[in-house]
Amino acid sequence: MTGAAAEAATVRREFARIHGRSPDGVWAAPGRVNLIGEHTDYNDGFALPMALPQTTVLAARRRADGLLRLHSAQGDGAITELTVADLVPGAVAGWARYPAGVVWALRDRGLPVGGADVHLDSTVPTGAGLSSSAALECAVAVAYDELYGLRLSRPELARVAQYAENAFAGVPCGVMDQMASVCCAEGAALHLDSRSLEVRQVPFDLTGHGLRLLVLDTGVAHDLADGAYAALRAGCERAAALLGLAALRDLAEAELPGALAELPDGLAPLVRHVVTENARVGRAVAALAAGEPEALGPLLTAGHASLRDDYRVSCPETDLAVAAAVAAGALGARMTGGGFGGSVIALVPAAAAGSVARAVTDAFAAAGFAAPAVLEALPSPGARRIG
């Protein structure tokens, strides 16, 4: 039995034990790492994420009585029971607001969806900047799409999940996390245009080039609902307005020096990051298309410096992980995700993977930080039915 089939069988059995009947199906949606293109999506920019092997797996069965009954293997054992017709932003707390928000968002679009019994299990680390919330939202979205015969496109499902996180969960995120979770393909990174939602699958053959991509989870949990993320987005939108632009995506790298001279000191660094980060995405895509994935290394490290110095969303743990990884032989490293904690990715020669991981662990110990968790990222498939 394959890994996905075994997961599906386990979740199916748990669903039957908890809800007392068999599910209509089992779906999975992955977390993601973003190779490059951070804080660009809500500026209509570009990003290059890839899906992780770690997923949220969800078994569900349609109900006719309008009840949404949610159970999580990572929860306290209780079933959260909600009335679909009564769902409104602010009415649901904790992890349940993410699946409930998707159901609310579908109804808010006028789609004829009702209740369901749901059991979910997840291997996506929470608070690690790997989009555990997007994986949960997208698993619900693809399940409901099939349960209720909605036939939404993949970008439409991503927009529903993003709307749920923005309007129901209260996190003003862009669409990159959700697009990665539903649209990524095995063996590829996803070149995303956040304005048009056009995507391109860019082959990313780590193994064939003797490379590995390590994910170093610093253990510093981040919470994008705490206001800092919203303040950054508001700053970018204000800067675009002052420059007479629809979004910062419309500012070319060559125009950056003149634009920065027109902006208040507090906004200029945000603009510099977004514009140079969009340019780094273009260079990364060109490197992968040319079959030169090792050329990503310097782009990762430059992206981290920009996030640290201009956007100011790193922390001592992520900065240390990047510095230690590069000193130990990584081709490049950077924090991934919204920041304020979370994880670092490091592109390393396969032969150096163990020594790089040990070097980061030793550096954390010397600084008095808890040991980081180390995962390996492989370009994996997006959301799908698995059982």
UniProtKB/TrEMBL annotation:
Q: Which residues does UniProt assign to the signal peptide?
A: none
What protein does this entry describe? Galactokinase
- Which positions does UniProt annotate for ATP binding? S72, G127, A128, G129, L130, S131, S132, S133
Q: Where is the GHMP kinase N-terminal domain?
A: 98-183
Role according to the record: Catalyzes the transfer of the gamma-phosphate of ATP to D-galactose to form alpha-D-galactose-1-phosphate (Gal-1-P).
InterPro entries per record:
Galactokinase, Galactokinase_bac, Galactokinase_CS, GalKase_N, GHMP_kinase_C_dom, GHMP_kinase_C_sf, GHMP_kinase_N_dom, GHMP_knse_ATP-bd_CS
Cross-referenced Pfam families:
GalKase_gal_bdg (PF10509), GHMP_kinases_C (PF08544), GHMP_kinases_N (PF00288)
From the UniProt record, report the name of the gene that encodes this protein: galK
